[in-house]
Design a protein that fits this description.
This is Hsp70-binding protein 1. The protein is an all-alpha fold and 383 residues long. It has helices at residues 8-17, 30-59, 62-67, 72-85, 89-97, 101-106, 113-127, 131-139, 143-152, 156-170, 174-182, 185-193, 198-214, 219-224, 227-234, 240-254, 262-280, 284-289, 291-305, 310-313. Helix 4 runs parallel beside helix 7.
């Protein structure tokens, strides 16, 4: 593809040459300053222009796109590109103003599962730690297709991506949390815990913990739906992340709980003793990997039985060289960092995979794929 637009390689070389510390600093000449500002402005305009072109495609009926030779794979590539553009909070918020948010949400109902999944990915990027875009998505009725896909889509990848988008949409968003509760979201979470897909389980467990931590009254809902039993089952999972997330959820559910039946207490003791036995048989290397699990098991034992677990007596709670555990290990639950402090997710992709060429739009000439990328928050969280 032809390389149009500003000479960014030249700009990089110029910047390095003037900031490597080998020569005294100097004021930019008026000519250099004007060239630099024009280059930056041209790049910004290209991104906005490209987002408008993508919006035009998203607004075009599927049958028209098909007649123009645009395939579902082309749409996925286009959504990949859009996701890179909306890494910037400003661009994410601008998507609505240029008319792109509503058609993007429409792709959540697309007949192709990969497009539904990719659209949810883009929504996740847009709303992550972004109250303005959270509000815009809620006002555009974006919550409804997301909860529908999460609850009942036949494709587990679509369900998982929708859950990730919901988690980002309702985090620190009271109207979103209320909508989730009213939409019977807890029942959908219970169904997710029954899935055999580990990634789906992780995302569900992390959202459960967040919701219970934010709304202690929801513990009653979780208990009525049988979450403790399911969490105890998942606490013996072969996946260490699932085990930790399940133990974390159990600790949150049982916090300040007084009316525990003898049967429930015995089941908890059996579970924790099983985990203690398993931890006791681990190698030193494996013990380092399950540090949080060790602390969670001890905290749960102390909470239920008012005494430290045998992990302390065995010297397995804190290994040599490790810092002492915090008083409340549940407070260590991961929450996504601010966008500005995280790496660009696009940099995590397999470097062996070359980026596909951007598809032509409705027969128009190829457009420069120059982009301005902003650092943003990473995860599913919980993934």
């Amino acid at each position: 593809m032809a390389k149009d637009g500003p000479n960014w390689d030249g700009l990089l070389k110029w910047s390095i040459a003037n900031s490597d510390g080998t020569r005294p600093t100097r004021n930019l000449s008026e000519e250099d300053r004007r060239w630099f500002m024009e280059a930056m402005q041209a790049q910004t305009i290209d991104v906005v222009k490209r987002m408008k072109e993508i919006t035009l495609v998203m607004q075009t009926p599927e049958e028209v796109l098909k007649d123009q030779g645009v395939t579902p794979a082309d749409i996925e590539d286009m959504l990949d590109e859009l996701q890179e553009h909306v890494e910037s909070i400003d661009m994410a918020n601008d998507l609505h103003s240029i008319g792109g948010l509503v058609p993007l949400l429409g792709y959540l109902k697309n007949s192709h599962a990969n497009i539904r999944a990719k659209a949810a990915d883009v929504v996740t990027t847009i709303v992550q730690n972004n109250p303005r875009s959270q509000q815009l998505v809620m006002e555009a009725n974006g919550f409804e297709p997301l909860i529908s896909n999460f609850s009942s889509d036949p494709d587990v990848t679509v369900r998982t991506k929708a859950l990730g988008a919901i988690s980002s949409l309702i985090r620190h968003n009271k109207p979103g949390i209320i909508a989730f509760r009213l939409a019977n979201g807890y029942a959908a979470l219970k169904d997710a815990l029954s899935s055999e897909n580990v990634r789906f389980q992780r995302k569900a467990l992390n959202l459960i913990h967040y919701l219970l931590e934010e709304n202690s009254s929801d513990r009653n809902i979780a208990n009525e739906l049988g979450f403790p039993r399911m969490l105890m089952h998942l606490a013996s999972s072969e996946d260490s992340d699932v085990r930790e997330a399940a133990l974390r959820g159990l600790l949150e559910l049982t916090r300040n709980t007084k009316d525990v039946t003898e049967e429930d207490s015995e089941k908890m003791k059996q579970l924790l003793q099983e985990r203690i036995n398993n931890i006791s048989s681990m190698s030193t290397e494996d013990l380092g990997v399950v540090r949080e699990e060790r602390q969670l098991v001890d905290s749960l034992w102390s909470t239920h039985f008012d005494e430290p677990s045998s992990l302390r007596e065995k010297g397995l709670l804190v290994l040599p060289g490790e810092d002492a555990p915090p008083p409340d290990v549940a407070s260590k639950f991961f929450e996504p960092p601010l966008r500005s402090s995280a790496v660009n997710p696009s940099s995590k992709k397999d470097s062996s995979n070359e980026k596909k060429e951007t598809p032509l739009l409705l027969g128009s000439p190829a457009v420069s794929n120059n982009q301005v990328s902003s650092n943003r928050e990473g995860g599913n969280a919980s993934s």
